[in-house]
Amino acid sequence: MIPLGWYLIFSALLFCVGLFGVLSRRNAIAILMGVELMLNAVNVNLLAFWRYLWAPKVDGQVFVAIVLVAAAAEVVVGLGLIISAYRRRNTVVADEMDMLKG
Amino acid sequence: MTGLQIAFLAIAAVTLASAVLVVSSRKIMHAALWLVLALGGIAALFATLEASFFAAVQVMVYIGAIAILIIFSVMLTRRVMEDTGPQNTRYWPAALVVSLGVFGGILFLFLQWPGFSVESRPGLEQGDLLVRFGQALVSPDEFVVPFEVASILLVAAMIGAMIIARDPSRK
């Protein structure tokens, strides 16, 4: 059997890769991709804990379902905002999106 | 090493490698395609966790919807960031330090936790599990409120995204 720790280390690594993407990228869409990686790492973690420590009960899976829904809503609104900013300012670079109105 | 462990290591290696390419590819389109592979690897990991429902949902929601949405946005906003110019901020070494620091901190906490090397899994019956999961989502004394709130969140996000992304020049 696979030890629980393998999943935890994997998801920690994936989370940190996503964090690096969020912090280092200039393109706003690439930043959103980093956020997606981080959310997926959280889901791996939640499902691993559910499977090893909580399995016959379904509470852990409900958490994962809610995280999935929140992630879908987040990416839809995020991409809508990026496309709207692109239409108005003609840029997708996060540094250049610095006006409240315009 | 059992076959399952070898499969886990192979999937994890592919997923992490494509995740690294997602955050380091110069071309944003390539990053989006690597993201598809990373999400597929995560779906396979869900399958090794015997969460078959979430493996299927991962493929449909993430690969089928979110990745496609990201690829569409990349195509809609393409010409701005031609694949010349730097793709990373000037501060990317600091970002690397922060990420490695976070990983070190997480690892430090994990290694102090006694449950870290648990190997045994409680028994699980797939068909029964799905039935109870579905019932838990709609049963009033379990999770019907979070479930409905999540539905409202999705609808609100969908309507909001349509209004935000509308062409401003058209009334």
List keywords for this structure.
heterodimer, A: 102 residues, mainly alpha, 3 helices, 76% helix, elongated, B: 171 residues, Four Helix Bundle (Hemerythrin (Met), subunit A), 2 domains, 6 helices, 72% helix, globular
Polypeptide structure, described:
The complex is a heterodimer of chains A (102) and B (171). Chain A is 76% helix and 0% strand. Chain A has 102 residues and is mainly alpha-helical. Chain A has a domain at 27-96. Chain A is elongated and about 50 Å long. The termini of chain A are far apart. Chain B has 171 residues and is mainly alpha-helical. Chain B has two domains: 1-81, Up-down Bundle (Four Helix Bundle (Hemerythrin (Met), subunit A)), CATH 1.20.120; 126-171. Chain B is built from six helices and no strands. Chain B has helices spanning 3-24, 28-48, 52-76, 92-112, 126-138, 144-164. The N and C termini of chain B lie far apart (64 Å). The mean pLDDT of chain B is 86.
Q: Provide the gyration radius of chain A in Å.
A: 17 Å
Uncertain ranges of chain A: none
The counted number of beta strands of chain A is: 0
How large, in whole angstroms, is the Cα Rg of chain B?
Answer: 21 Å
Shape of chain A: elongated
How confident overall, as mean pLDDT of chain A? 87
Series of H and E elements of chain A: HHH
Which architecture name of the largest domain in chain B does CATH use? Up-down Bundle
* DSSP summary, beta strand count of chain B: 0
Counted by DSSP, the helix tally of chain A is: 3
Please summarize the sheet with the most strands of chain A: none
